[in-house]
Amino acid sequence: MIESLVELQNIGKIYWRGDAEETALVSATCSVKPGDRIALVGPSGSGKSTLLHLMGGLDQPSTGSISWPGLGTCENLRPQKVSYIFQMQSLLPPLTVVENVELPLLLGQIEATKARKAALETLNRMRLNTIADKLPEELSGGQAQRVAVARALASRPQLILADEPTGQLDHPTAQHLFDVLLDSLEGSETALVVATHDQAIAERMNTIWQMQHGVMEVVTC
């Protein structure tokens, strides 16, 4: 039996906005296994980002339980076992492209020369080696997101959580970025969970989870 990377049992999440209670998730039960390709779809505010944050240990549930059978404890998930790709610009402005890509490796206590080698190899594999010494301000939006993908891949994580990674890109650039991501994961056991509004991207995944008002439904599997 394949061990799940993450398991959520009857997860609920409530936020407080002043005195107002806001329900983000309602009794979600799901699991992610090695090699999974999962799309989270649904309108803004439906709970997609909340679910990703809980999966990656960035937030704690109000009810229910989360475990990471194939990854270990919550404290040891990042930056190497679980990687994130965000919608908004997430590169650190003072660092060059290669420095941004190697940063999670350095934070994970990888020796500096090995971290630089892994970062350069990843950039080369993604055909980004020619911009390795550029600063984020010198990049186009598409280039910046490809570097964010490279940063997520460099540590060879077991789980990648992507929150609207193409949300700020035009359609052709978004499709190219997703091509690069899927090609980079081809043949690997790294699981990918992507929150997206792009139906074309969702349909390229093996499983679709529909989110609506904090309730999750498996549409395809």
TrEMBL record:
Signal sequence, renumbered to the chain: none
Domain ABC transporter: 6-221
UniProt key word Kinase: no
Listed InterPro entries: AAA+_ATPase (IPR003593), ABC_transporter-like_ATP-bd (IPR003439), ABC_transporter-like_CS (IPR017871), ABC_transpr_LolD-like (IPR015854), P-loop_NTPase (IPR027417)
Coiled coil regions, renumbered to chain: none
GO cellular component, one term: plasma membrane
Keyword Cell inner membrane among UniProt keywords: no
Enzyme class: hydrolase
EC number, UniProt record: 3.6.3.-
Keywords from the UniProt entry: ATP-binding, Hydrolase, Lipoprotein, Nucleotide-binding
Molecular functions (GO terms): ATP binding; ATP hydrolysis activity; transmembrane transporter activity
Name the UniProt record assigns to this protein: Lipoprotein-releasing system ATP-binding protein LolD
Organism listed in the record: Desulfosporosinus acididurans
